[in-house]
Design a protein that fits this description.
Blueprint (H helix, E strand, L loop, with lengths): L13 H14 L19 E8 L3 E8 L7 E6 L15 H7 L2 E6 L15 H14 L4 E7 L1 H10 L5 E7 L5 H8 L4 H10 L1 H6 L2 H5 L6 E7 L7 H11 L2 E5 L7 H4 L1 H23 L1
Parallel strand pairs: 3-4, 3-5, 5-6, 6-7, 7-8
Antiparallel strand pairs: 1-2, 2-4
């Protein structure tokens, strides 16, 4: 029997979201400023974009990679918490595999990364903006999300409200970023506890398990590393169980290492997830 979809937690009041977003960024790992590399020639053709400014959101930068031939759909790539932003996807074969499979790819800089403006509040709004831009590039085609670590985390929150996305694939996503911080940066525990006690609605809203349980995407897949201290195998299983999703835990692998150790297997799992999502959407429409 399939578990009934849950209702995602309500968005906190504007003041609490702004305070929660400010504290989130203050407590997040510091990143060194590095030059952002241009896409390599091997990924040509591509187009650099600035997504239109939205009230209170600021503008976002992205790179568009057209599909090989007639588009089957589109995939939004969301990067981890790394100074490279969307340039993180220049390597490891995700973009070529998606294009070859017929997907147009939009790699997005989350707020404060690359050329994207920092914004008050939470980053799930940027995910919605990225999906709107992707839909314009592949009108009438299936939309998918591939989020890695931090990018996948914010995608959970965005997708739980139902945005017409057919498939979502997540690498190394924590059920709650402040729980991740509690384990990986224990010196900050008094601040994480302060966040939970003073901003309870924001803390609850940031629980990705509650958003995964909304089951708003027809097909979902997860992958993580067996040796990841921040995203433990049991965390991946908890998210996958909540979403009714497939999961893959790669042995002897740490955070962000699954694509390095088992790249072909990870990419194949993502493409299979997207294909399943498209099939289920068609079945629902019949």
């Amino acid at each position: 029997m399939t578990a009934q979809a849950a209702i995602p937690p309500p968005r906190p009041a504007r003041w609490e979201e702004r305070a929660g977003g400010f504290l989130f960024r203050a407590l997040a790992p510091r990143l060194a400023r590095e030059p952002i590399p241009e896409p390599p020639a091997a990924l040509a053709p591509f187009e650099e974009l600035v997504l239109p400014r939205r009230p209170g959101h600021g503008s976002l930068t992205a790179t568009w990679y057209a599909p090989a031939g007639e588009p089957r759909g589109g995939a939004l790539l969301l990067h981890p918490w790394m100074s490279w932003g969307k340039a993180y996807f220049h390597r490891r074969g995700r973009i070529p595999a998606l294009r070859e499979a017929g997907y147009g790819v939009l790699a997005l800089d989350l707020p404060g990364f690359g050329g994207s403006h920092s914004i008050p509040g939470f980053y799930d709004r940027a995910v919605v903006q990225g999906l709107e831009a992707l839909a314009l590039r592949v009108p009438g085609r299936a939309l998918h999300v591939w989020g890695v670590s931090n990018g996948g985390y914010w995608a959970h929150i965005a997708l739980s409200s139902g945005l017409g996305v057919a498939g979502a694939f997540f690498e190394d996503v924590s059920p709650h970023l402040l729980e991740w911080s509690w384990r990986t940066a224990p010196l900050g525990r008094p601040f994480y506890l302060f966040y939970r006690l003073v901003l309870p609605r924001a803390y609850r809203f940031l629980d990705a398990r509650r958003h995964a349980a909304a089951r708003a995407v027809p097909a979902v897949g997860y992958v993580s590393g067996e040796l990841d201290r921040g995203v433990r195998p049991e965390d991946t299983h908890a998210l996958a169980d909540a979403a009714g999703a497939e999961r893959l835990v790669v042995p002897d692998t740490e955070h962000l290492g699954s694509i390095k150790r088992a790249g072909s297997e990870v990419i194949a799992a993502a493409l299979e997830t997207f294909s399943k999502g498209e099939t289920r959407v068609l079945q629902q429409d019949q």
